[in-house]
Amino acid sequence: VQLVESGGGLVQAGGSLRLSCVASGLTFSTYNIGWFRQAPGKEREFIASVSWRGFATNYADSVKGRFSISRDNAKNTVYLKMNNLKFEDSAVYYCAAGKALGVLIGDYWGQGTQVTVSS
User: Fold this and answer.
1) Distance, CA of 83 to CA of 68 (rounded, Å)
2) Please, which residues bridge with residue 80 across strands?
3) CA angle, 90 as apex, 66 and 46 as ends, to 5°?
4) pLDDT tens for each residue of 46-99
5) Mean pLDDT computed over 28-57
6) In whole angstroms, how far apart are CA 18 and each of 25, 41, 51, 82, 99?
7) Within 13 Å and on the Cβ side, how many CA atoms surround 9?
């Protein structure tokens, strides 16, 4: 199983980025997918999740209204659109796949993509 994140980078505060997570080696359409992030010196934090068919989404309060998660099962891909980015959104962002929901997703993990927001 492999999860590969991309789309990170350096952006100014108030800007936007779209992260992608492409999965292989699993029946993608049967897995819930989550995005997490970890900043230096901090614990890993749940950001958002989407259910296996895409009908249910869940967000952390810190990103609600700014971030949007979606998936395209035909492309084995999950997206995280991040708008109105803040300095405190800077972190390594990871996607994870699992049979559990929300914060419990974590059977498989990607290697992460760095997001840096300049103030």
Assistant:
1) 8
2) 19, 69
3) 65
4) 999 999 999 999 999 999 999 999 999 999 999 999 999 999 999 999 999 999
5) 96
6) 23, 25, 19, 6, 24
7) 11
Please state the three-class secondary structure of the chain as a single string.
CEEEEECCEEEECCCCEEEEEEEECCCHHHCEEEEEEECCCCCCEEEEEECCCCCCEEECCCCCCCEEEEEEHHHCEEEEEECCCCHHHCEEEEEEEECCCHHHCCCEECCCEEEEEEC
Candidate from 36-40, 57-61, 103-107, 108-112 with smallest mean pLDDT:
103-107
Structure tokens at 101: 């929901």
